[in-house]
Amino acid sequence: KRRKRLSLEEYKSGILSGDRVGLSRAITLVESTLDSDNELAAQLIDEIYEHTGNSFRVGITGVPGVGKSTFIESFGKHVIDSGKKLAVLTIDPSSQKTGGSILGDKTRMETLSRSSNAFIRPSPSGDALGGVAHKTRETMLLCEAAGYDFIIIETVGVGQSETAVKNMVDFFLLLMLAGAGDELQGIKKGIMEMADAIAINKADGENVEPAKKAKKEYQNALHLFPANENGWNPKVKTCSAIKDDGLSEILELLEQFHKEQNETGFFDENRKDQAIHWMHQTIHHFLKRNFYKSPEILEKLSKFEAEVRNGTKHSVQAARTLLNQYYN
Ligand code: GDP
Predict the structure, then answer these.
(1) Structural domain boundaries of the chain?
(2) What ipTM goes with this model?
(3) How far is CA 245 from CA 67, 200, 204, 208, 238, in A?
């Protein structure tokens, strides 16, 4: 598909004017895999950087079916009613493998998407997860510059993308279900450990009591993790996304976190740690990308793979030879 190329100034003013079309165009530029677009996108991020950072960034994760889109649809309304402009970005790792997406095949967040104070954007597909995470982070910056002051980054909680999201948000919310075992839910201990809060969703009808029981169990489980250095004790809540039950309490909890962390200075501290993390991530990403794009390497790669397979070279030997060639 062809798209009109705008100048840096046009992209910039499109974003800063708060116009959704302008924002969408800029995101498309950031998502592009063309080198020439990447260069312009990097300049654009530089240009708008001073207008970023003024949002509360929230990651939401949970396995498919836990109710993420229903939750965000209902919760997002509370966010907007509190006077915020909300951007929802989704990272869906499944879309990279299959080309189709778990998220994409349903009409998601229909009501929310009609609100003039909400902006919803799925992640690009077809790139490595590291690349998607970068693009999501840059998209988040664009949204902030466009005036969105509450950002939700949604991931399908299957393990790969959670760490990347944890490293770009201020608050990480894990959605769970009562009754299904942790293993069934594909939730690894490591993901629970990242959570600032766990919300047990679908606490309605016959599920109310099991949800309360699960809440106690998770509270106990969270006590076993080492304390956070920011002084925040992860909380467990129950909610019903479909009945809009317990969601305003969850928003209050997030606001309490925001306020407390600002007062203690840990909010900024965390942002600074993340900035350093992203510096290194960016270095890793580009080193790797350039290596695998280099013609000398591409030319030899399959030969080396064959040699490793048939045992004429061992893995480390092959890797070192290629690396030496790349750097010489
Ligand atoms: P996602 O895959 O995590 O985004 O989950 P969805 O939001 O698509 O929800 C999966 C299914 O669970 C849908 O059929 C929803 O209607 C249902 N669901 C979501 N939230 C609730 C809830 O709070 N209570 C009940 N009973 N069902 C819910």
Answers:
(1) 1-50, 52-264, 280-327
(2) 0.99
(3) 13, 11, 8, 11, 9
